[in-house]
Amino acid sequence: MENRLVVLLLGSNMGDSIACLKTAINGIEQRLAPLVASSSIYKTAAWGKTNQADFYNQVIAFQSSLEAEKILEICLDIEKQMGRERIEKWAERVIDIDILFYRNEIIDSPNLKVPHPYLHVRKFTLVPLNEILPSLIHPTFNKTIDNLLANCSDASKVEKM
After folding, report:
1. Would you call the peptide bond into 115 cis, given omega within 30 degrees of 0 as the criterion?
2. Which of 49, 68, 96, 121 could covalently link to 90 via disulfide, CB atoms 3.0 to 4.6 Å apart?
3. 149, 127 contact by CB (below 8 A)
């Protein structure tokens, strides 16, 4: 099977978040593939459940021949090894690893939705994504990332670290 571009969003707002992002990247590079691109780290207010610490987010990309479900399984295992507990939606977390894109495929299974269903309405996702892949085309909307960002109604502040 050919290699496919995989794009992930990493997020953390517990403990040493910058170190948590680095640990997650190390796990991804050891278990999945070396990165071909990584954005700067961005600090943003929590989204969805806002009464918690700010998040640090980063978008990374790599090439993989693994199926999307297998990539998800490995990402969830990395989260678990780092101490992530899934108790409440949008709660604080030591690490969150979301699959944003799996090549240009659209996946709608019970366990996985790709492209990520909220990426186009969240500046904390679009800003780092636009830094590394501005001309990537969202397969559902048939628009580039820079176009999605330019038309995003999210007014939250996204601060480059």
Report:
1. yes
2. 49
3. yes
Specify whether the CB–CB gap between 56 and 2 falls below 8 A: no
pLDDT in tens, 11-68: 999 889 999 999 999 999 999 999 999 999 999 987 766 667 889 999 999 999 999 9
The conformational region for residue 148 under phi > 0 = left, psi -120 to 50 = alpha, else beta, is: alpha
- Residue-wise pLDDT tens digits, 62-116: 999 999 999 999 999 999 989 766 665 556 678 999 999 998 999 999 989 999 9
Q: Which long-range contacts (CB under 8 A, 24 or more apart) does 64-69 make?
A: 64/3, 64/4, 64/6, 64/32, 64/33, 65/1, 65/2, 65/3, 65/4, 66/32, 68/6, 68/99, 68/102, 68/105, 68/107, 68/112, 68/114, 69/109, 69/111, 69/112
Residue 35 near residue 61 (C-beta atoms within 8 A): yes
**Whose structure tokens read 């990584």?**
38
Question: Could you tell me the domains of the chain?
Answer: 4-160 (3.30.70.560)
Per 3-state DSSP, the chain is made up of helix, strand and coil in percentages (nearest 5) of: 30, 25, 45
